[in-house]
């Protein structure tokens, strides 16, 4: 698949002036395209790549680094296994680099470090005393275990003040995908695919854009050798090892759409404390879940709730997980509608499209004309004894004294005037202590009916074409 999107990230990487050394840290979940980004940036540069080995000892990491050093510079006489340490290897690397500007790329840095701080400390010494003085390099530290890269690299005392640029690489945004593939599939189909795989380049690479969404889902999700059938196990193990608590948190959230800390601790059978906070933080840093509060509540642990934001995980637990046995038994005689019953599929689409809109809130704000205004964004919900009694999908609380309320619908049928009564009921119980002006917006995959348009109830009606074309 051709390289798409990432304009801002490429522009940031290209700000290196080559007159001195620079240090950049890139992190993000597996499959998101970190390595491809660096390779695209350095396509016209001299680049030396070093990759960590998953699950190997320090001794094996040193041996591997030495081997890669000899391959990069055709210096095979330097290989002396067992006699090297990081200080010696960095000094050797610096000598071979010389004074010519180049990119030095440490990929899967958390594996190279063995999830410990020693390598970070040794790199700090080498950076201060060797690389920044003797060379002109753009060193890029890249890692797929975001918790390690944030806590042990970016927040480390060793590299404090030395990192010149930080890139938290998330999935591609939808416009990058529609721009690349709109000539092959309709906008609605591309959105439906995005609601399944998100903007993860590795998953997009698996799609056959000459086929419909249902045929793609059949091949990737509901065939015994489908790439996305067992992807959950691969990504959880690669991020968190065999710790089952992470899976249990995701399972609870998949069954309940959201969960607070109290219920999550009970389900996972873990006592409240810092250890559980670590699990939640790591899942957030990986981009699998998010912590959120109702927009009318102060942020904090007491009001916090958690939900799945990774599209693949949301789809997996709704439709793949319940049918794993049939899928793995290769019972291909089942039509895809067996796995995607209408009622459940349409319900999932509604939730998934809300998450898509939330992720693209900046784009929506721009389309509504207040992109330059500072705002807080989120959902509002009123909770009953066990369940949410009323909810507004997307709310912008703007610094210009306006509350923009968005009702989000993903249907094939046109939206009629009946939506007005539902929104009015929500507005009646919506807290508005500052008496902000309320602007009502309808975001819809289908066009509104003529009577609804003529009613003039909504300040704006945005269709998917208005937002994502």
CATH topology assignment of the largest domain: Arc Repressor Mutant, subunit A
Radius of gyration: 25 Å
Shape: globular
CA(first)-CA(last) distance = 21 Å
Strand order of the largest sheet: 2-3-4-1-5
CATH superfamily of the largest domain: Winged helix-like DNA-binding domain superfamily/Winged helix DNA-binding domain
Structural class: alpha/beta
The name of the CATH architecture of the largest domain is Orthogonal Bundle
- β-strand number: 13
Regions with pLDDT < 50 over 5+ consecutive residues?
Answer: none
Give the DSSP E fraction (strand runs of 2 or more residues).
15-25%
Total number of distinct structural domains: 3
Quick overview:
It contains 23 helices and 13 strands. With 469 residues, the chain is α/β, with parallel strands linked by helices. The chain is globular.
List the helices and strands and how they pair.
Elements: H1 7-13, E1 22-27, H2 34-41, E2 47-51, H3 58-73, H4 86-97, E3 102-107, H5 109-113, H6 118-134, E4 137-143, H7 146-154, E5 165-168, H8 174-181, H9 187-197, H10 201-206, H11 213-221, H12 231-240, H13 244-256, E6 259-260, H14 261-268, H15 274-285, E7 289-292, E8 305-308, H16 311-320, H17 324-328, H18 336-339, H19 342-359, H20 361-367, E9 375-383, E10 388-398, E11 402-409, H21 418-429, E12 437-444, H22 450-455, E13 460-463, H23 464-468
Parallel strand pairs: 1-4, 1-5, 2-3, 3-4, 11-12, 12-13
Antiparallel strand pairs: 6-8, 7-8, 9-10, 10-11
Helix pairs in contact: 3-4, 4-6, 8-9, 9-16, 9-19, 13-16, 16-19
């Amino acid at each position: 698949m051709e390289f798409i999107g990432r304009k801002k990230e490429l522009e940031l990487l290209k700000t290196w002036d080559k007159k001195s050394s620079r240090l950049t840290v890139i992190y993000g979940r597996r499959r998101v395209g970190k390595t491809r980004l660096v390779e695209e940036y350095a396509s016209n540069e001299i680049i030396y790549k070093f990759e960590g080995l998953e699950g190997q000892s320090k001794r094996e990491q040193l041996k591997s680094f030495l081997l890669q050093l000899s391959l990069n510079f055709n210096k095979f006489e330097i290989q002396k296994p067992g006699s090297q340490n990081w200080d010696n290897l960095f000094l050797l690397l610096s000598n071979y680099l010389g004074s010519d500007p180049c990119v030095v790329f440490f990929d899967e840095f958390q594996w190279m470090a063995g999830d410990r701080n020693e390598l970070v400390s040794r790199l700090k010494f080498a950076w201060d005393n060797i690389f920044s003085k003797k060379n002109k390099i753009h060193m890029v530290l890249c890692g797929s275990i975001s918790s390690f890269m944030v806590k042990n690299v970016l927040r480390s005392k060793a590299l404090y003040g030395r990192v010149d640029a930080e890139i938290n690489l998330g999935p591609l945004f939808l416009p990058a995908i529609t721009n690349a593939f709109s000539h092959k599939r309709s906008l609605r189909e591309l959105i439906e695919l995005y609601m399944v795989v998100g903007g993860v380049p590795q998953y997009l690479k698996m799609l056959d854009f000459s086929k419909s969404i249902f045929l793609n889902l059949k091949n990737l999700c509901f065939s015994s050798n489908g790439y996305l059938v067992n992807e959950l196990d691969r990504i959880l193990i690669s991020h968190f090892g065999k710790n089952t608590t992470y899976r249990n948190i995701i399972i609870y959230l998949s069954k309940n759409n959201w969960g607070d800390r109290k219920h999550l601790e009970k389900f996972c059978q873990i006592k409240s404390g810092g250890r559980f906070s670590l699990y939640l933080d790591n899942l957030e840093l990986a981009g699998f879940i998010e912590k959120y509060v109702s927009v009318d509540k102060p942020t904090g642990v007491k009001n916090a709730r958690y939900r799945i934001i990774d599209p693949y995980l949301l789809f997996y637990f709704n439709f793949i997980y319940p049918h794993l046995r049939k899928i793995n038994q290769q019972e291909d005689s089942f039509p895809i509608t067996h796995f995607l019953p209408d009622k459940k599929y349409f319900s999932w689409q509604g939730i998934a499209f809300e998450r898509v809109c939330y992720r693209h809130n900046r784009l929506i704000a721009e389309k509504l004309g207040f992109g330059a205004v500072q705002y807080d964004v989120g959902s509002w919900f009123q909770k009953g004894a066990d369940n949410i009694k009323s909810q507004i999908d997307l709310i912008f609380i703007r610094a210009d004294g306006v509350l923009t309320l968005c009702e989000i619908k993903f249907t094939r049928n046109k939206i009629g005037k009946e939506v007005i009564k539902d929104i009015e009921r929500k507005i009646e119980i919506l807290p508005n202590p500052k008496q902000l002006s309320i602007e009502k917006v309808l975001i819809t995959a289908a066009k509104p009916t003529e009577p609804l348009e003529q009613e003039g109830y909504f300040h704006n009606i945005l269709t998917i074409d208005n937002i994502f074309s």
